[in-house]
C-alpha cells in the first residue's frame, strides 16, 4: 500500500488548480455529522468512530488574551481538517478515480483509519469551539474549502504537509498558554500533539519514509498557520474569520523545491514596492534551531511579482524534514519563529526534505 512519490509543492508553494468546492452555499455543507453543532446522537456516533470521547473536565474559569487567540486558531484549523478528511474519506468510499485500491484489505484498512482520524479531528474542533463558548466568546464557524488534490497519493502528501505545520504550530500554542499562565489548557494540547504525531507517522510510512521525521520537530508561529490554511478557503466564505487577530502574509512560492543537498532555489513573491530589493532576505525555520537567514539574488521583477534565487544551506545545518521559508524585511538575527513572523512580508513556503 506504500507509494514512493516525490513531495509535491503545496501551501503557498504553487498556484493552486483546485476542484470546485462541494456542497451548496455555506461551509457546513462540507462537514459531516451535523458539524460544527452535532446533536447528542451525532456526537455519540463521532465519539464511537473516534475510539474515545471529548474531555469531560470543564475548562479553567479564566483565560488570557493569547489563550483565546490560540483557541480561535485551533478551531479554524480543525474545521478545515474535518472538511479535508471528510472529502478524502468520501472519495475512497465511493471509489472515485484516483482513490481506488487493488487490494480490498488495504482499502478496508484505509477507510477504517481515516474514519477514526476524521472523527478525532471533529472532536478537536468541538473541544476548541466548546472552550471558546465556555469563555463567552463566539465560536469559529466553518468556511467553504477547496483542495488541490486529485488522487490518494497527492492527498496523503498534502495531509502530511499540513500535519507538519500543525505540529509546529501547536508548539507555539503551548508556549502562548505558558506565557498567559493558562496552565489548565496546556496538558490537553500536549495530548493532541501526540495524536497528530501518530497520524504523521502513518502518512510518512505510506510515502515509503521512516515514521519519525526529526529528533526535534520544526517549530512554527500561529500567523504562518493562519495564512497557510487560507490557501484552502474559498475567498469570502468564512463567516467570522475577522474575529481571529492574526496576520495574513502575501504568498511565497517555492518554484524549485530543494533536494537533500545544498543548492540554490528559486522563489517568487509579490513585489513589496521597496526601492532597494537588497533589503529583503529569505529566512528558514528548521527543527528547534535558530532561524537561518540567506540573501536574495533578484532575478526579475514583472507584473507585480519578484523572482529571486537563494541558497538552501542543507549540508551546513542538516536541514532535513520540515522547513518553513519566509521573505523577511530584516536580516536578523532572529531568536525564534515569532520574531521571524514579526518581520515577514511573504510566506510561508513549506519545504519537506527526507
Protein model, in words:
The protein is of the alpha+beta class and about 350 residues long. The chain folds into 2 domains: about 25-245, no CATH class; about 250-354, Sandwich (Immunoglobulin-like), CATH 2.60.40.10. Helix content is about 40%, strand content about 15%. The chain is built from 8 helices and 8 strands, in the order ααααααββββββαβαβ. The chain has helices at about 40-50, 65-95, 105-135, 150-180, 185-205, 220-230, 315, 335-340, and strands at about 250-255, 265-270, 280-285, 290-295, 295-300, 305-310, 320-330, 345-354. The strands form 2 sheets. Strands 1-2-6-5 form a 4-stranded antiparallel sheet, with no helix packed on it. A 4-stranded antiparallel sheet has the order 4-3-7-8. Helix 4 packs antiparallel against helix 6. The two termini are about 20 Å apart. Residues about 5-30 have low confidence and may be disordered.
Unreliably modeled segments: 4-28
Distance between the termini: 19 Å
The shape, in one word, is: globular
Order of helices and strands: HHHHHHEEEEEEHEHE
Q: Summary?
A:
This protein is of the alpha+beta class and 354 residues long.
What's the structural blueprint in terms of helices and strands?
Layout lengths: L39 H11 L14 H29 L10 H31 L17 H28 L3 H24 L15 H8 L22 E3 L8 E8 L10 E6 L5 E4 L1 E6 L2 E8 L1 H4 L3 E8 L8 H6 L1 E10 L1
Question: Notable features of this structure?
Answer:
354 residues, alpha+beta, Immunoglobulin-like, 2 domains, four-stranded antiparallel β-sheet, 8 helices, 40% helix
Amino acid at each position: 500500500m506504500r507509494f514512493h512519490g516525490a513531495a509535491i509543492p503545496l501551501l503557498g508553494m504553487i498556484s493552486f488548480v483546485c476542484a470546485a468546492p462541494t456542497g451548496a452555499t455555506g461551509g457546513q455543507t462540507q462537514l459531516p455529522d451535523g458539524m460544527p453543532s452535532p446533536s447528542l446522537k451525532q456526537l455519540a456516533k463521532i465519539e464511537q468512530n473516534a475510539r474515545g470521547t471529548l474531555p469531560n473536565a470543564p475548562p479553567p474559569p479564566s483565560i488570557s488574551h493569547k489563550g483565546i487567540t490560540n483557541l480561535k486558531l485551533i478551531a479554524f484549523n480543525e474545521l478545515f481538517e474535518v472538511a479535508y478528511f471528510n472529502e478524502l474519506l468520501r472519495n475512497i468510499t465511493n471509489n472515485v478515480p484516483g482513490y481506488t485500491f487493488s487490494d480490498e484489505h488495504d482499502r478496508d484498512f484505509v477507510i477504517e483509519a481515516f474514519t477514526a482520524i476524521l472523527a478525532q479531528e471533529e472532536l478537536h474542533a468541538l473541544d476548541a469551539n466548546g472552550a471558546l463558548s465556555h469563555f463567552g466568546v463566539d465560536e469559529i464557524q466553518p468556511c467553504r474549502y477547496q483542495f488541490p488534490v486529485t488522487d490518494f497519493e497527492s492527498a496523503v502528501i498534502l495531509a502530511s504537509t499540513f500535519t507538519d505545520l500543525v505540529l509546529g504550530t501547536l508548539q507555539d500554542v503551548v508556549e502562548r498558554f505558558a506565557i498567559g499562565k493558562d496552565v489548565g489548557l496546556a496538558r490537553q494540547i500536549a495530548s493532541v500533539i501526540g495524536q497528530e504525531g501518530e497520524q504523521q507517522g502513518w502518512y510518512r510510512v505510506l510515502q515509503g519514509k521512516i515514521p519519525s521525521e526529526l529528533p526535534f520537530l520544526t517549530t512554527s508561529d500561529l500567523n504562518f498557520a493562519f495564512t497557510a490554511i487560507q490557501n484552502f478557503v474559498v475567498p469570502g466564505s468564512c463567516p467570522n474569520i475577522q474575529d481571529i487577530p492574526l496576520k495574513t502574509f502575501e504568498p511565497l512560492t517555492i518554484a524549485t523545491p530543494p533536494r537533500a543537498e545544498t543548492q540554490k532555489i528559486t522563489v517568487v513573491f509579490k513585489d513589496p514596492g521597496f526601492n532597494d530589493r537588497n533589503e529583503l532576505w529569505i529566512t528558514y525555520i528548521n527543527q528547534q534551531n535558530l532561524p537561518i537567514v540567506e540573501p536574495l539574488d533578484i532575478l526579475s521583477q514583472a507584473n507585480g511579482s519578484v523572482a529571486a534565487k537563494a541558497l538552501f544551506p542543507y549540508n551546513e545545518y542538516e536541514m532535513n524534514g520540515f522547513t518553513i521559508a519566509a521573505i523577511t524585511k530584516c536580516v536578523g538575527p532572529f531568536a525564534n519563529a515569532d520574531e521571524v513572523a514579526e518581520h515577514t512580508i511573504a510566506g510561508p513556503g513549506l519545504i519537506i526534505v527526507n
